[in-house]
Amino acid sequence: MATTTFLANATVNMTVGASTYDLSDQATNVTLTVGSEALEATAMGDTGRRMVAGLQSVEVSLEMFLSYGTSEVEAALADAVGKQVTLVISPSGTTESASNPEYTITATYLESFTPIASAVGELSKVTATFQGGSYARDIV
Contact 103/88 with Cβ under 8 angstroms? Predict the structure, then answer.
């Protein structure tokens, strides 16, 4: 049985070269998936397959309201597309702790994004998927 509940209020900051963008105020959903590639290390005498960790794998999916202007979502993603960037993501606020770990993803890559997504009577949203890079988890 769960002993605590969590109200999501993630912070998302992206650095592209010398420019840093706080995307938290436009983000509606962020999903961070981390792990390591499985490498087979089975030897002749083993009775089952053995796996060891290989390179880190990282994917970040970020859904945001599409806004235009200097330092807004469209400008930030246009700056990031085709480049390696750094993302810093926390589940709730910017103060790291055991209950609010901060993940720093370095050298992650944004292949493409949709700069215009308009429908009558709807708020425009964009989803950006970052792939690759390496991550570090910090709680202090």
Answer: yes
Contact by Cβ (8 Å): 108, 84: yes
Report yes or no: 111 and 80 within 8 Å, Cβ to Cβ. Answer: no
Which region holds residue 133: left if phi is over 0, alpha if psi is between -120 and 50, else beta? left
List b or e across 47-73, with b for residues whose CB sees 16 or more CB atoms inside 10 angstroms. Answer: eeeeeeeeeebbbbebebebbeeeebb
User: Going from the N-terminus, what domains does the chain have, and what CATH number goes with each?
Assistant: 11-138 (2.30.110)
The per-residue pLDDT string of the chain (140 residues; one tens digit each, 9 = 90 and over) reads 666 666 678 899 999 999 999 999 999 999 999 999 999 999 999 999 999 999 999 999 999 999 999 889 999 999 999 999 999 999 987 788 888 899 999 999 999 999 998 899 999 999 999 999 999 999 88
**Rounded to an integer, what distance in angstroms lies between the CA atom of residue 106 and that of residue 114?**
23
Provide the sign of the torsion angle of the four alpha carbons 32, 76, 27, 92, taken in this order: positive
